[in-house]
Amino acid sequence: MPLIPEEPQIHESAQGPRATPASGRTAPTPRPVPGPRPAAPPRPGRPGPLRPAPPVQRTPHDVAVAKPGVPGPAAPATAATPAPASASAAPQIQLIPASAAGALDAAEEAVDLLLESGRAPGEVLVITTGEHHPWAAHELSFGEAAYWAQHDAGDDVFYADATVVSRAASRPVVVVAVNGGSAAAAAEALPLAHARAGALLIVCGDPQQINSVLGAGV
User: Fold this and answer.
1) d(C-alpha 37, C-alpha 1), whole Å
2) Is the pLDDT of residue 152 over 50?
3) Mean pLDDT along residues 43-59
């Protein structure tokens, strides 16, 4: 009797999933997926991202010319522009009661408050009717040319005597210290100081004297 070759037996251990892929190479170990990366810069020789085309400059021939009798395109509506403030608007006046001896100290405190509130030093002019402010006396010791050069620079508080108020330029804030001098000198200085104050006039001194002068001279 001829021998029939036996069929190969399939063992259960060989029926599971294969440990190696069909190609016979070991499967690579999975790696973590990185997060989003920034766009890579263009390589040399490769075009980068496209940029928007520049605006087309129109020539006068491209602009439509309105013909007589034919209405052109309506202009876009614009918001109404407020009228500019009057240049001659009177400045606000503040009175700080003080004696002749304390008027200069009151003026110094007013200047400090102005600077702390945001006023630039070059916006303030201080006028004295009696003795010179110590700063003015010190600067005048170097000569009037150097003294007035600082006034013209306009980058710091300027102190002037009432006799030279007419030479001083206008500033947004003028502070007057009625710290002595004749009544005529104060009566002449206060109206001039008022005329040079763009927004605010502060007067430190005797309220009765100041009101009588400003009431008549302003």
Assistant:
1) 75
2) yes
3) 43
> Which burial class, exposed, middle or buried, applies to 107 when counting CB atoms under 10 A from its CB (0-12, 13-18, 19+)?
buried
pLDDT in tens, 22-35: 445 444 444 443 43
Q: Is the CB of residue 189 less than 8 Å from the CB of residue 158? A: no
> What whole-number distance in Å separates Cα of residue 162 and Cα of residue 25?
103
How far is 4 from 1, CA to CA, in rounded Å? 9
The reported pLDDT for the residue numbered 185 is: 84
User: Residue 112 above 80 pLDDT?
Assistant: yes
What is the percentage of the chain residues whose pLDDT exceeds 70?
58
Find the largest Cα–Cα distance for the chain.
157
Residue type for position 133: H
Sheet of 158-161, strand order: 92-97, 197-205, 171-177, 124-128, 158-161
What gap in Å lies between CA 37 and CA 20, rounded to an integer? 33
Mean pLDDT of the chain: 73
Query: What is the structure's pLDDT at 40?
Result: 44
Beta strand 171-177 with 197-205 is parallel
Residue 124's CB is within 10 A of a number of other CB atoms, namely 22
